TrEMBL record:
<protein>
    <recommendedName>
        <fullName>Endoribonuclease YbeY</fullName>
        <ecNumber>3.1.-.-</ecNumber>
    </recommendedName>
</protein>
<dbReference type="InterPro" id="IPR023091">
    <property type="entry name" value="MetalPrtase_cat_dom_sf_prd"/>
</dbReference>
<dbReference type="GO" id="GO:0004222">
    <property type="term" value="F:metalloendopeptidase activity"/>
</dbReference>
<keyword id="KW-0862">Zinc</keyword>
<keyword id="KW-0479">Metal-binding</keyword>
<keyword id="KW-0378">Hydrolase</keyword>
<feature type="binding site">
    <location>
        <position position="128"/>
    </location>
    <ligand>
        <name>Zn(2+)</name>
    </ligand>
</feature>
<dbReference type="GO" id="GO:0004521">
    <property type="term" value="F:RNA endonuclease activity"/>
</dbReference>
<keyword id="KW-0255">Endonuclease</keyword>
<dbReference type="GO" id="GO:0008270">
    <property type="term" value="F:zinc ion binding"/>
</dbReference>
<comment type="similarity">
    <text>Belongs to the endoribonuclease YbeY family.</text>
</comment>
<dbReference type="GO" id="GO:0005737">
    <property type="term" value="C:cytoplasm"/>
</dbReference>
<keyword id="KW-0690">Ribosome biogenesis</keyword>
<keyword id="KW-0963">Cytoplasm</keyword>
<comment type="function">
    <text>Single strand-specific metallo-endoribonuclease involved in late-stage 70S ribosome quality control and in maturation of the 3' terminus of the 16S rRNA.</text>
</comment>
<feature type="binding site">
    <location>
        <position position="138"/>
    </location>
    <ligand>
        <name>Zn(2+)</name>
    </ligand>
</feature>
<dbReference type="InterPro" id="IPR002036">
    <property type="entry name" value="YbeY"/>
</dbReference>
Length: 162
């Protein structure tokens, strides 16, 4: 999987950027995502997180990670109106799956609050957002159990434990 990384803050260390790339590739392999998939990750500050959270989620506060899942639009590919295109084919035709915005301010705060390393917090946010853009959610107790269990499985298998 190809990951485009942008540090809008200029404060993210090279090891965190490298960990993010490797962890996302690992997570993609773990859930058997095709290698052709692409995504973007931007490291931002709380001010930018607040702006994006308001714009995309109508929530007037900063948050730790914003996940924007991308779903291809059949109209982009100029198919005959009567053709029905299977979701699998659409997914192959457009490899971009989405983007994550990770607040470095929230990551620092939460690492301290939870008593674990900054590397662990960035990894947790990265995998959490990645699972969201791949269809996982935690609105119900059942969904939460599935998503958080998978998230912990991936982090543990990668070697990023508490």
């Amino acid at each position: 999987m190809h990951v485009e990384l942008v540090d809008e803050t200029g404060k993210v260390t090279a090891p965190i950027i490298e960990q993010t790339k490797k962890l996302l590739a690992f997570a993609a392999d773990y859930i058997k995502l095709p290698e052709s998939k692409e995504m973007a990750v931007s490291f931002i500050d709380n001010k930018r997180s607040h702006e994006l959270n308001l714009e995309y989620r109508d929530t007037d506060r900063p948050t730790d990670v914003i996940s924007l899942e991308y779903k291809p639009d059949e109209e982009e590919f100029f198919f005959d109106e009567e053709m029905e295109i299977p979701d699998e084919l659409m997914a192959e035709m457009d490899p971009f799956i989405g983007e994550l915005y990770i607040s470095i301010d929230k990551a620092s705060e939460q690492a301290e609050d939870y008593g674990h390393s900054l590397e662990r917090e960035y990894g947790w946010l990265c995998v959490h957002g990645f699972l969201h853009i791949n269809g996982y959610d935690h609105y119900t107790e059942e969904e939460e159990k599935e998503m958080f269990s998978l998230q912990e499985e991936i982090l543990t298998a990668y070697g990023l434990t508490r």
